[in-house]
Amino acid sequence: MTMGNLVEQDHHMKMDKFGPFSTHFHKETEIYLQNAWPTVKSALEDYGISCALNLVEGSMTVSTTTKTTDPDIIEKAKELIELLSLSVPAYEAIRILDAKMKCDFIEIGTKRGGLCVKYGINMEQFCERWERFLGPKNTGLKTIQHLTGCSVFFHGNFTVAVIGKFEGSKMVRRIVVDCIRNKMRPSVHIRRLRMNQNEHKLTKKLFDQGGYRSIMEASVFMKTSFDFHEHISTKFVEALHQIQDSDIEAIADKFRSSDSLEVHVNAEETLCAITRLAPPGLATKICNPSFIQRLLQHAMEDSQRKSVLTSSLSVCISLLDREREALRTNACTGEHQPAHGSTITVNNEIVVAMLDSLGDLLKLLDVSSADNMLLTTYGKLQPPLGKHRLKIVEFISVLLSVRSQAAEKELIRVAAIQKVFDLFFKYPYNNFLHHHIENIIVSCLESKNGPLVQHLLCECDLVGKILEAEKNFTLAADSFMPTIPAKGRSPPRNGNIGHLTRISNKIIQLGNNNREIQAYLQENSVWAEWHTEVLLKRNAVENVSHWACGRPISSLDRGRSS
């Protein structure tokens, strides 16, 4: 016996028997049901459901069998015979067996539970509103069926049966209830449905023109602006939820189908805008771990331009750091801004999906084999750092800020922090790089993870490298380093001293509350001497609150009093 047979046999053994379930039908439908029953029986047998038509009692019965594998199919079968009892054609009722299809029964008449009884609507009012829903020669009903993709049937003036996908059937129920209870004309909903469909088509056309920045900006506005939603339709957010998968896949395909840098940048900005600004639910597709893995794996292919990698990492950064836009807004408005290294709530599954590509990303930080060169005012870069390497460092910086234990453990295992810290000294004039590495170091020092702090102080030798850089503060003529000074000129002062000063002050500040850091600093006599002889004096000189600089006395007094 094969493994598949064992699994199938085990599944059958666990399947409980449900039923029989019966539904009665009217005498008028007896002949039709008798003719259509072979078709119904055949469809149900495909799902392992037995059925019976009892003409004497006027009932239909369904129940599970030993061949039933789906425990939910019996509910579908019950809905099927319920539809048949309401005179729904058999070929339409059988559609409900499809897993994607939903069925909804809306009681509208004067029976118990109907809308008329529930909201005190008399028969005259009901008939007037129901005629308005149907429209002349049922044109309103046909339009609603076309726009929602649902089949709508009504049994007398009591029950409406809807067959279709979930969003469509939900929209039909809303239209029926609004029409009967609220006296709303169905034309209002029909206009909204048509506008949403037109918006869907327009959005697809805009995404096809991804190389044009103005068009992509317009599409971002259409997909994310709440003002646009209010002006176009109050239900537009729900329409976005219906089309999110196809739209996001269309944008992501731009990384695969185009070699244009402009297209890559536009696709990146669109995805980032959706993660930051779109209504809740629209970013669900991007937050899917499989989507992130696919995006990064494709970006790491040798055939792809580096702009694909840069754009893909920007999307990951936007997912990890969704508070960035809020922090910028607070800074602009003068409101309180959270402290450095504030924790960001993020799905751990997304972080784990990103960590799968961390090893390949770190390989790209190796600059020893690159041979391209860039002339500068102080000499030359061979090779230059490049946008893609800078983006990898920024990605690691944001990855540390989410305080994920899995991320911290993996960063220690692959020595990512050590490799990034080496770039700090290999490129002493790249201020953007220094900024990200400073954030990485501060995130490590502020972490409550002891092994991470120990790794930074010991394996990465943070204090030792700072002291070495302070000792040799001019650019060295080392052919093995990517930053090479110009020949015939005195070597310039390294441009990373300012960041080293900030990092050193941060180490001392955090050491006052961290015994591990404090003990490590006290054991280093060279650090204690440098702190006293160099750092304290430098801080005094660079303390701008003590600079007069021709400012009025009143401003100085205010600064000191504050």
Structure description:
This protein has 562 residues and is mostly helical. The chain is 60% helix and 7% strand. The chain has 28 helices and 9 strands. It has helices at 3-14, 30-45, 73-85, 90-93, 115-119, 123-134, 139-148, 166-181, 186-208, 213-224, 226-232, 236-257, 261-277, 289-299, 306-320, 324-333, 348-355, 358-363, 387-401, 405-413, 416-426, 431-446, 450-459, 462-471, 497-511, 515-522, 525-542, 553-561; strands at 21-24, 49-54, 59-64, 102-107, 151-155, 159-164, 374-375, 379-381, 483-485. Strands 1-3-2 form a 3-stranded antiparallel β-sheet, with helices on one face. Strand 2 and strand 3 form a beta hairpin. Helix 9 (186-208) runs parallel beside helix 12. The longest helix has 23 residues, at 186-208. The chain is elongated, with a radius of gyration of 34 Å. The N and C termini lie far apart (83 Å). The relative contact order is 0.04.
Number of helical regions: 28
Low-confidence parts lasting 5 or more residues at pLDDT below 50? Answer: 1-14, 210-215, 226-243, 323-345, 558-562
Number of beta strands: 9
Inertia-based shape: elongated
Summarize the structure.
This protein is mainly alpha-helical and 562 residues long.
What topology emerges from the helices and strands here?
Elements: H1 3-14, E1 21-24, H2 30-45, E2 49-54, E3 59-64, H3 73-85, H4 90-93, E4 102-107, H5 115-119, H6 123-134, H7 139-148, E5 151-155, E6 159-164, H8 166-181, H9 186-208, H10 213-224, H11 226-232, H12 236-257, H13 261-277, H14 289-299, H15 306-320, H16 324-333, H17 348-355, H18 358-363, E7 374-375, E8 379-381, H19 387-401, H20 405-413, H21 416-426, H22 431-446, H23 450-459, H24 462-471, E9 483-485, H25 497-511, H26 515-522, H27 525-542, H28 553-561
Antiparallel strand pairs: 1-3, 2-3, 4-6, 5-6, 7-8, 8-9
Helix pairs in contact: 6-8, 7-8, 7-9, 9-12, 10-13, 12-13, 13-15, 14-15, 14-17, 15-19, 19-22, 21-22, 22-25, 25-26
